[in-house]
Amino acid sequence: MFGNMIFRKMFWWQVGKFFRDPKTRDEFLPLLYRQFEASPSTRPAFFGLNEDLPATVRSGTGKMQKLKEFSRPVRIIFGEADPYLNKGVAKSFHDLFPTSNLFLLPGARHYVQMDEPQEVARLILSMPPG
Q1: Which end of the chain has less neighbouring CB within 10 Å, N or C?
Q2: How many helices (H) and strands (E) does the chain have?
Q3: Measured in whole angstroms, how far is the alpha carbon of residue 10 from the centre of its chain?
Q4: 4-48: pLDDT as tens digits
Q5: Are strands 100-105 and 74-79 parallel, antiparallel or unpaired?
Q6: Comparing C-alpha atoms, which of 3, 9, 8, 17 is closest to residue 36?
Q7: pTM for the whole thing?
Q8: How far apart are CA 95 and CA 74, in angstroms?
Q9: Is residue 16 within 8 Å of 29, Cβ to Cβ?
Q10: What contacts 24+ positions apart, CB below 8 Å, involve 66-71?
């Protein structure tokens, strides 16, 4: 029981910061939590999210040259106020793809598609054909 309470508080604290709008957060965070709670395999994945990050980054480093060779149009859309995948991360992705356009949406956070749904839709729908 104590572990469940800690997990719930950790989830709400961490994932709750993804949302800019409190009303949207209050609507969607309980739905996301119920999805995590329903499956017994998600708790270890949630806690291990950051444990294997360095190894994951190292394993992907060898694939970076392939990204630089990707020639189709790429649209990178990030929230300028994302506390996790920040502007520096967005710019790094932009540097990897020679045909990319980078869009940093002011005030948007990690769930940019929920903070700025109309702008994200406009950017996606206005993609040049590849």
Answers
A1: N
A2: 8, 2
A3: 18
A4: 777 778 888 888 888 888 999 899 889 888 877 776 666 677 677
A5: parallel
A6: 8
A7: 0.70
A8: 11
A9: yes
A10: 67/96, 67/97, 68/96, 68/97, 68/98, 70/97, 70/98, 70/99, 71/98, 71/99
